[in-house]
Amino acid sequence: MMRPMVENIKVLYFANKSLEPYVQIITLMDSGKRCQSVCSSEEGNCSENEEIEDLLPVLRDPSQILNNLYITNLANHMPARTQGYPWNLVYSTAFHGTSLKTLYRRMAHIDCPVLLVIKDMENKVFGAFSSDPFKVSNYCYGTGETFLYSFYPEFKAYRWSGENSYIVRGHKDSLQIGGGGGYFGLWLDSDLYHGASYACHTFNNQPLSNKQDFTVQDLEVWTVQ
């Protein structure tokens, strides 16, 4: 008879140049219990894919972009306070049209972190996790939890460098994430059709897409708390 595996403990570190680092410990459920529903009664082994799916956040709406690999990587890099919450689709170009104004309107009554996911015309997937919902503002907003990410050519998260506070700013005709050195880490126009991504001081990132100027194929925004 196989002995149950001990609990796995995952330690997440969050730090930047301006904040003291801290540690958040999340205890995952026992591996034996996780596999119980998917194990074969004869072999006693569970499918790796099925086990991974058991650990994924619950998406309450269909996604045109996200798959299990994307979800796993993103969830593992989000702040501890977002763990365990379902993801809700608040805006999608596939369902709500291509309008930054509509995006702002659908987020007007939201007060929680959001995940921006973009697929460009070259099928590159990238975006940003924002500690604050997107809105029109005369000033920059957001905290050091905000980060940029890209799956091209492999997954990479670019966290706040602490060099400036140009984290997020929403204009009526554009959305800007990151800045410094005269360039934005991620920029979108009012039609959510044309975008740009350059290296910037806020996140010390590389361009998120294959091209610095890109065209949007699909765009989604998810709430994660």
Automatic annotation (TrEMBL):
Coiled coil: none annotated. InterPro entries: TLDc_dom. It holds the Pfam family TLD. Residues 64-225 form the TLDc domain. Transmembrane segments: none annotated. This is TLDc domain-containing protein.
